[in-house]
Automatic annotation (TrEMBL):
Keyword terms, alphabetized: Transferase
Disordered: annotated span: 152-188
Gene3D superfamilies attached to this UniProt entry: 3.40.630.30
Name under which the protein is recorded: GNAT family N-acetyltransferase
Pfam (any one): Acetyltransf_10
Length: 188
């Protein structure tokens, strides 16, 4: 089994990260017939600025290739989980789950709640988030007419799901990629 490595990306990884993000979100854009969703129109400079700052961020590499990432946006005691992406050819291997757990672990101490929005018809993503302890907390239709679901959880709501699985199963990505020290289309 190939080994993933999780680590904080730097501004020098912005181009690779944006490429994976766009590849991962194309199917979401097609599902909703909305080609201008925020992950597809985010610019290289915006990604680079996020990565140059103190934004909690985690990326996954398979050898030299960046294959997934996630960023957090902290506002006081809350952190938005944003842009959880996995390269389309790497989806379904547990990497989305490992990235989500790693960004939870990277949240600064004052953060007590995590939240995110995902497409109302993005069933795989919603299952991934529910398995990580997220619950539906409302819905909204964005400016492009896309139905979104807001999901939330507390820092301790799903600590068990955030621990690396050590049973050798396909869910054991955290153990296989050594994510313990890590300080959308998630493919989970």
């Amino acid at each position: 089994m190939d080994q993933f490595r999780l680590a904080r990306p730097g501004p020098e990884h912005a181009g690779e990260l944006l490429t994976v993000q766009r590849a991962a979100y194309v199917t979401e854009a097609q599902r909703y017939d909305a080609p201008h969703i925020p992950p597809l129109v985010e610019t290289l400079d915006e990604v680079r600025a996020d990565l140059a700052g103190d934004v909690p961020a985690v990326a996954a590499w398979l050898g030299p290739r960046l294959v997934g990432s996630v960023r957090g946006r902290v506002d006081g005691g809350r952190m938005e989980i944003a842009r959880l992406t996995v390269a389309p050819d790497q989806q379904g291997r547990g990497l989305g789950r490992a990235l989500l757990a790693a960004v939870h672990a990277a949240a600064p101490a004052p953060v007590e709640r995590f939240w995110l929005v995902t497409g109302a018809r993005s069933d795989d993503n919603r299952r991934l988030y529910a398995a990580a302890g997220y619950v539906d907390a409302g819905s909204v239709v964005d400016a492009a007419g896309v139905g979104l679901v807001r999901m939330e959880r507390g820092r301790e709501d799903s600590a068990e799901q955030d621990r690396p699985v050590r049973d050798g199963s396909a869910r054991d990505v955290s153990a296989r990629c050594g994510h313990g020290s890590a300080g959308g289309p998630a493919g989970g």
